[in-house]
Amino acid sequence: MQELQEKIKKDGVVLGGNILKVDSFLNHQIDIDLLNKIGQEFKNRFTNKHITKILTVEASGIAVAAISAQHFNNIPILFAKKNKTKNIDQNSVYSSQAQSFTHGTTYEIIVSKAFLSKDDTVLLIDDFLANGCALEALVDICHKAQANIAGAGIVIEKGFQEGGKRIRSKNIQLESLAIIEKMDANGIIFR
Ligand code: 5GP
Questions:
Q1: What does DSSP say about strands 174-184 and 148-158: parallel, antiparallel, or unpaired?
Q2: What per-residue confidence (pLDDT) applies to 84?
Protein backbone atom coordinates (compact mmCIF):
# COMPACT_ATOMS: atom_id res chain seq x y z
CA MET A 1 0.00 0.00 0.00
CA GLN A 2 1.83 3.01 -1.39
CA GLU A 3 0.46 5.71 0.93
CA LEU A 4 1.29 3.64 4.00
CA GLN A 5 4.85 3.04 2.80
CA GLU A 6 5.33 6.76 2.21
CA LYS A 7 4.01 7.56 5.68
CA ILE A 8 6.34 5.01 7.28
CA LYS A 9 9.30 6.47 5.38
CA LYS A 10 8.36 10.01 6.32
CA ASP A 11 7.34 9.59 9.99
CA GLY A 12 8.60 6.17 11.14
CA VAL A 13 11.63 6.12 13.44
CA VAL A 14 13.97 3.13 13.40
CA LEU A 15 15.12 2.29 16.91
CA GLY A 16 17.72 -0.22 18.01
CA GLY A 17 16.68 -3.83 18.53
CA ASN A 18 14.68 -3.98 15.29
CA ILE A 19 11.92 -1.74 16.61
CA LEU A 20 10.09 0.66 14.32
CA LYS A 21 8.37 3.51 16.13
CA VAL A 22 5.20 4.74 14.45
CA ASP A 23 3.79 6.59 17.43
CA SER A 24 2.89 9.68 15.42
CA PHE A 25 0.26 7.93 13.24
CA LEU A 26 -0.46 4.36 14.40
CA ASN A 27 0.50 3.44 17.96
CA HIS A 28 -0.08 6.53 20.05
CA GLN A 29 -1.46 9.39 17.99
CA ILE A 30 -3.62 7.95 15.22
CA ASP A 31 -4.08 9.21 11.66
CA ILE A 32 -7.75 8.35 11.12
CA ASP A 33 -7.77 9.07 7.39
CA LEU A 34 -4.89 6.65 6.83
CA LEU A 35 -6.44 4.09 9.18
CA ASN A 36 -9.66 4.29 7.21
CA LYS A 37 -7.78 3.52 3.98
CA ILE A 38 -6.06 0.63 5.75
CA GLY A 39 -9.49 -0.74 6.70
CA GLN A 40 -10.68 -0.42 3.08
CA GLU A 41 -7.58 -2.21 1.85
CA PHE A 42 -8.20 -5.13 4.22
CA LYS A 43 -11.75 -5.32 2.90
CA ASN A 44 -10.42 -5.42 -0.69
CA ARG A 45 -8.05 -8.24 0.16
CA PHE A 46 -10.59 -10.38 2.04
CA THR A 47 -13.62 -9.47 -0.02
CA ASN A 48 -14.73 -13.02 -0.85
CA LYS A 49 -14.71 -14.33 2.69
CA HIS A 50 -17.81 -14.27 4.84
CA ILE A 51 -16.16 -12.84 7.92
CA THR A 52 -18.31 -12.63 11.04
CA LYS A 53 -15.83 -11.18 13.53
CA ILE A 54 -12.49 -9.40 13.71
CA LEU A 55 -10.13 -10.57 16.45
CA THR A 56 -7.13 -8.57 17.66
CA VAL A 57 -5.02 -8.06 20.80
CA GLU A 58 -5.13 -5.08 23.11
CA ALA A 59 -4.01 -2.39 22.94
CA SER A 60 -2.57 -1.25 19.64
CA GLY A 61 -4.61 -3.60 17.46
CA ILE A 62 -7.93 -2.20 18.65
CA ALA A 63 -8.01 1.00 16.61
CA VAL A 64 -7.04 -0.79 13.39
CA ALA A 65 -9.63 -3.50 14.01
CA ALA A 66 -12.38 -1.02 14.88
CA ILE A 67 -12.00 1.06 11.74
CA SER A 68 -11.61 -2.05 9.60
CA ALA A 69 -14.87 -3.48 10.94
CA GLN A 70 -16.76 -0.56 9.43
CA HIS A 71 -15.69 -1.81 6.00
CA PHE A 72 -17.00 -5.31 6.81
CA ASN A 73 -20.61 -4.33 7.44
CA ASN A 74 -19.90 -3.28 11.02
CA ILE A 75 -19.22 -6.80 12.27
CA PRO A 76 -18.14 -6.94 15.92
CA ILE A 77 -14.51 -6.69 16.86
CA LEU A 78 -13.21 -8.75 19.71
CA PHE A 79 -9.93 -7.97 21.40
CA ALA A 80 -7.97 -10.51 23.38
CA LYS A 81 -7.13 -9.12 26.79
CA LYS A 82 -3.71 -9.39 28.31
CA ASN A 83 -4.48 -11.17 31.54
CA LYS A 84 -3.08 -9.38 34.54
CA THR A 85 -5.04 -11.11 37.29
CA LYS A 86 -4.95 -14.60 38.76
CA ASN A 87 -8.57 -14.69 39.88
CA ILE A 88 -10.07 -15.27 36.48
CA ASP A 89 -12.40 -18.22 35.96
CA GLN A 90 -10.36 -20.28 33.47
CA ASN A 91 -13.51 -22.20 32.48
CA SER A 92 -15.07 -19.09 31.06
CA VAL A 93 -12.20 -18.06 28.78
CA TYR A 94 -9.98 -19.35 25.99
CA SER A 95 -6.37 -18.54 26.78
CA SER A 96 -2.98 -18.71 25.16
CA GLN A 97 0.58 -17.67 25.94
CA ALA A 98 2.62 -15.23 23.86
CA GLN A 99 6.12 -13.82 24.02
CA SER A 100 6.19 -10.04 23.79
CA PHE A 101 8.61 -8.81 21.15
CA THR A 102 8.73 -5.25 22.42
CA HIS A 103 8.88 -6.05 26.16
CA GLY A 104 10.74 -9.37 26.10
CA THR A 105 8.28 -10.95 28.55
CA THR A 106 5.69 -13.72 28.31
CA TYR A 107 2.04 -12.87 28.75
CA GLU A 108 -1.29 -14.67 28.68
CA ILE A 109 -4.12 -13.51 26.45
CA ILE A 110 -7.72 -14.40 27.12
CA VAL A 111 -11.00 -14.24 25.21
CA SER A 112 -14.35 -14.92 26.79
CA LYS A 113 -15.98 -18.14 25.55
CA ALA A 114 -19.20 -16.17 25.23
CA PHE A 115 -17.87 -14.23 22.24
CA LEU A 116 -16.14 -16.80 20.03
CA SER A 117 -17.52 -20.09 18.71
CA LYS A 118 -17.48 -22.58 15.85
CA ASP A 119 -20.06 -20.43 14.07
CA ASP A 120 -17.52 -17.63 13.62
CA THR A 121 -15.29 -16.94 10.65
CA VAL A 122 -12.58 -14.71 12.00
CA LEU A 123 -10.25 -12.14 10.49
CA LEU A 124 -7.20 -11.64 12.68
CA ILE A 125 -5.83 -8.10 12.69
CA ASP A 126 -2.75 -6.55 14.25
CA ASP A 127 -0.57 -3.49 13.80
CA PHE A 128 2.79 -5.31 13.56
CA LEU A 129 4.06 -8.76 12.69
CA ALA A 130 7.54 -9.50 14.05
CA ASN A 131 8.21 -13.05 15.27
CA GLY A 132 4.57 -14.05 15.01
CA CYS A 133 3.91 -14.85 18.68
CA ALA A 134 0.92 -12.54 19.08
CA LEU A 135 -0.71 -13.84 15.89
CA GLU A 136 0.00 -17.46 16.79
CA ALA A 137 -1.66 -16.94 20.16
CA LEU A 138 -4.76 -15.61 18.37
CA VAL A 139 -4.70 -18.60 16.01
CA ASP A 140 -4.46 -20.89 19.04
CA ILE A 141 -7.48 -19.23 20.64
CA CYS A 142 -9.50 -19.63 17.41
CA HIS A 143 -8.58 -23.33 17.30
CA LYS A 144 -9.68 -23.76 20.91
CA ALA A 145 -13.00 -22.10 20.05
CA GLN A 146 -13.23 -24.20 16.83
CA ALA A 147 -13.73 -20.92 14.95
CA ASN A 148 -12.75 -20.70 11.26
CA ILE A 149 -9.85 -18.44 10.39
CA ALA A 150 -10.44 -16.38 7.24
CA GLY A 151 -6.94 -14.92 7.35
CA ALA A 152 -4.76 -12.33 8.98
CA GLY A 153 -4.39 -8.65 8.14
CA ILE A 154 -1.26 -6.87 9.32
CA VAL A 155 -0.44 -3.20 8.89
CA ILE A 156 3.37 -3.52 9.06
CA GLU A 157 5.23 -6.80 8.65
CA LYS A 158 8.93 -6.81 9.42
CA GLY A 159 9.86 -9.27 6.70
CA PHE A 160 13.34 -9.86 8.09
CA GLN A 161 11.82 -11.52 11.16
CA GLU A 162 10.25 -14.98 11.27
CA GLY A 163 6.55 -14.24 11.83
CA GLY A 164 5.53 -14.05 8.17
CA LYS A 165 7.06 -17.42 7.35
CA ARG A 166 5.56 -19.03 10.43
CA ILE A 167 2.04 -17.85 9.69
CA ARG A 168 2.18 -18.56 5.92
CA SER A 169 3.44 -22.10 6.66
CA LYS A 170 0.14 -22.73 8.47
CA ASN A 171 -1.71 -22.03 5.19
CA ILE A 172 -3.30 -18.91 6.63
CA GLN A 173 -3.94 -16.11 4.13
CA LEU A 174 -1.66 -13.38 5.42
CA GLU A 175 -2.06 -9.89 4.00
CA SER A 176 0.52 -7.36 5.16
CA LEU A 177 -0.01 -3.86 3.81
CA ALA A 178 3.65 -2.87 4.13
CA ILE A 179 6.47 -5.41 4.33
CA ILE A 180 9.82 -4.08 5.47
CA GLU A 181 12.75 -5.93 3.94
CA LYS A 182 15.43 -4.01 5.76
CA MET A 183 15.65 -1.06 8.12
CA ASP A 184 18.52 0.73 9.78
CA ALA A 185 19.82 4.22 10.44
CA ASN A 186 20.18 4.74 6.67
CA GLY A 187 16.49 4.19 6.00
CA ILE A 188 13.76 1.66 5.31
CA ILE A 189 13.53 -0.64 2.29
CA PHE A 190 10.21 -2.31 1.43
CA ARG A 191 9.76 -5.69 -0.23
P1 5GP B 1 5.29 -10.65 17.37
O2 5GP B 1 4.37 -11.30 18.34
O3 5GP B 1 4.91 -10.89 15.94
O4 5GP B 1 6.74 -10.94 17.65
O5 5GP B 1 5.15 -9.07 17.62
C6 5GP B 1 3.95 -8.43 17.30
C7 5GP B 1 3.51 -7.52 18.40
O8 5GP B 1 4.61 -6.83 18.98
C9 5GP B 1 2.57 -6.49 17.84
O10 5GP B 1 1.31 -6.67 18.46
C11 5GP B 1 3.18 -5.14 18.21
O12 5GP B 1 2.38 -4.54 19.20
C13 5GP B 1 4.52 -5.43 18.78
N14 5GP B 1 5.63 -5.08 17.87
C15 5GP B 1 6.48 -5.92 17.24
N16 5GP B 1 7.42 -5.26 16.55
C17 5GP B 1 7.17 -3.95 16.72
C18 5GP B 1 7.81 -2.75 16.24
O19 5GP B 1 8.82 -2.76 15.53
N20 5GP B 1 7.24 -1.58 16.62
C21 5GP B 1 6.14 -1.51 17.42
N22 5GP B 1 5.67 -0.31 17.71
N23 5GP B 1 5.51 -2.62 17.89
C24 5GP B 1 6.03 -3.83 17.55
A1: parallel
A2: 78
Query: Which numbered atom of ligand 1 lies nearest the CA of 132?
Result: 3
Which residue would you say has higher pLDDT here, 73 or 103? Answer: 73
pLDDT digits (tens, 9 = 90+) for 20-67: 999 999 999 999 999 999 999 999 999 999 999 999 999 999 999 999
Answer yes or no: is the C-beta of 1 below 6 A from any ligand 1 atom: no
Smallest CA-to-CA distance from 68 within 97, 87, 93, 42 is with 42
Is 87 a residue whose pLDDT tops 80?
no
Specify the residue with its C-alpha closest to ligand 1, atom 16: 130
CB of 180 shorter than 6 A to ligand 1: no
d(Cα 135, Cα 56) in Å, to the nearest integer?
Answer: 8
pTM: 0.96
pLDDT, mean of residues 167-184: 97
